[in-house]
Amino acid sequence: MKAAFFTVLLFIFTFQVSNAQWVQTSNGLGDVIIFSLTNNGDKLFAGTYANGLYSSTNNGVDWTPSFLNEVCYSLAVNGNNIFAGTVNHGVFLSTNNGLNWIQTSLNNRTIGAFAISGNNIFAGARNGDAGVLLSTDNGTSWTQTSLVNKIIYSLTISGSNIFAGAYDTGVYLSTNSGVNWIQTSLNNRRIYSTANIGDNIFAGTASGGVYRSTDNGINWNQTSLNSSNGFSLIVYGNNVYAGMGFATGVNVSTDYGISWEQRNEGLGNFFIYAFSILNNNIFVGTGGMSIYRRPLSELTNINSVSNEIPNAFSLSQNYPNPFNPETKISFSVPGTQNVSIRVYDELGKEVDILVNEQLEAGTYEAVWSADKFPSGIYYYKMTAGNFSKTTKMILLK
Description:
The chain has 397 residues and is mainly beta. It has two helices and 36 strands.
C-alpha cells in the first residue's frame, strides 16, 4: 500500500515538473516568424513576418488579424495609441486598440525600434537616411535627429538619456532628447537590443551575448551570458530576460545581469526575437514557430496572488513546513517598493535570493526550490523600506 501511495506521489510530482515548460500558443497564427510583441491592457499584439499584425484578447490562446497587413518589426504603446513600425512603409498609428490604422507622415522607411518619453516618440530607422527620428505630436509629423546614416535596431530611454543600438557601430547616447548624440565605448559591435533597470543599461550583441553598463554607457562589461546573439531584451521589476539565438534561447537574470539561468524547457532551438509580459505570463516570439507562453512564476519563482492593496507589509510562515524540496512563502506589499527576500543557512550565510525587485502593491507568493541544498534549518528574511522580518523554516529530506 505504501509503495502504491509513493508511486502516485511520484507520478504527480513528475507530471507537475514535465508541465513546467513553455507552451506554444499560436491558434490562428500558424508556425510563423514573430518579429514584435506588445500589449495594450489585456490585448496582445504580434507582428508577423508574412501575415501582418495579429491580436489576442484571451491571453494568447487565440489570434485574429488586426487589420494591418504589413510586416511589423516593432510595436509600442503610448496611452491609447499603438505605433507599428513596418518594412518600407514607415509608422502606422491606431487610436482604437488596433481596430483601425492610419499611416503617419513617416511613410517610407523601415522602422525597427521605438522609445517613448512623455510626448516624445523616437523611431529607429533601418534604411533611407536611417538613424533616429522624433515626433512630438503623436506621430503627425517627424523630424530627423542628428543621429543619421546609422542602421538602428533598438532604442531605450533611461531617465533623461536615450540609448540607440546600431548595426555594427555600437551604442549611441543622447542626453538632450536626441538633439546631440555621442558614440559610447561599446562601439565595435552590432547591437540587436537594449534595455535598462535604472542606471544598469543592457545591450544584446551579435555573437557576443549581453553587455552591461552601470555608468550610463561610459564603460561596458560583457556579462557571463557571453555568446550567441542577443536578439531581444525585456525588463520586469529587477529581472532581465534575454532572447538569444539557436540553442541559447531564453535566459533570466535576477541580479542585474551578473549571473544568468537558461530556461528553455519545452521551447526548442529557435531565435527569440520578441518578448511581452501580461497577466503574470511571459510571451516570446520565435523565428519560425510562432509564440510561446509561460507563467512568470516558473522563471522567477514569484507570482502575484492578489492586486488588492494590503494595509501593511507582511511575511507569512512558509508552507509546507517542514518541506521537501519546495515550499511557498506569501508576503504583502502596501505600495510600490523594492522588496528583497533572501535565504540564509543556520550559520547566517546567504544561500539564495528569492525576490530582489520593485513590486507594485499586492500580495505575492514566492517559491523556494531547495533540491540542491542539504536538510537543515534555514531562515528567510524580507526587507522592504523600513520593514524587516526573519522567519525560520525546516528542509527535511
